[in-house]
Amino acid sequence: MSMRKKTLFIELIFIILINVVLLFVFIEVDLFQRFYHFTQNNGLLKWGELLLLCISILLSTLYIFARLWRKSVIYARLTKHSASKDPLTKLLNRGTLEHALATEWDRYLRYHEDFCLVLFDVDDFSDINENLGHIEGDRVLMDIAQKVSLNTRKTDSVARWGEEEFLILCPVCKAEQGAVLAEKLRAMIYRTLKDGIELSASFAVVQSKPTQSFDDLMKRADFTLHKAKKRGKNCVVTG
């Protein structure tokens, strides 16, 4: 049974129980008969009977509002979650990581705790799409995203930075530690796909420097990745 069907089933049971209890109470106080006489003789109901009716209406109203509120909260959470994620890889999207990077840079300026960026790009990804198809290309990206997610710290932030480009923000991290992570991921990604096509990635690792601005750091990451491509790809270069 799916979660949605299970929830609907539980809510149905809850509503049935409420109605059974109220029906039992109504029968016990002969409320249905009193209503009948009221409609026939235009008599007045006692305050206790009116109170019972008010409680019934109040419970139904509260349940309806509680259900609507719960749905709105769940929808808001799902909307926020979807807006921060890349739809294919389920990693953070670029905009979300850019916000995290700005926050981390502010923290660095205040506390002077170094952090690292690990930028990597799938080598010759266009060849994979052209020779094996875009569906296989998407599978490659999803597989890489899963590997990265399982092998980074909970404090790290991982995003799909471009079509076949990924960026990892590693707080409280030195370049040497970032290089170890990059080499581990490089080895895990490397393999031969169909028709002898190799899958590999080039990595750039850069560490924050007090003498450089945030823009300089990002430029250094791009330049270091370019150096990794020039060295023959499928390698890790620290800048």
From TrEMBL:
CDD domains: GGDEF. It catalyses: 2 GTP = 3',3'-c-di-GMP + 2 diphosphate. It comes from Psychromonas marina. It holds the Pfam family GGDEF. Keywords: Membrane, Transmembrane, Transmembrane helix. This is diguanylate cyclase. InterPro entries: Diguanylate_Cyclase, GGDEF_dom, Nucleotide_cyclase, Rev_trsase/Diguanyl_cyclase. PROSITE patterns: GGDEF (PS50887). It comes from the Bacteria. Its EC number is 2.7.7.65. The chain crosses the membrane at residues 7-27, 47-69. Residues 113-239 form the GGDEF domain. Signal peptide: none annotated.
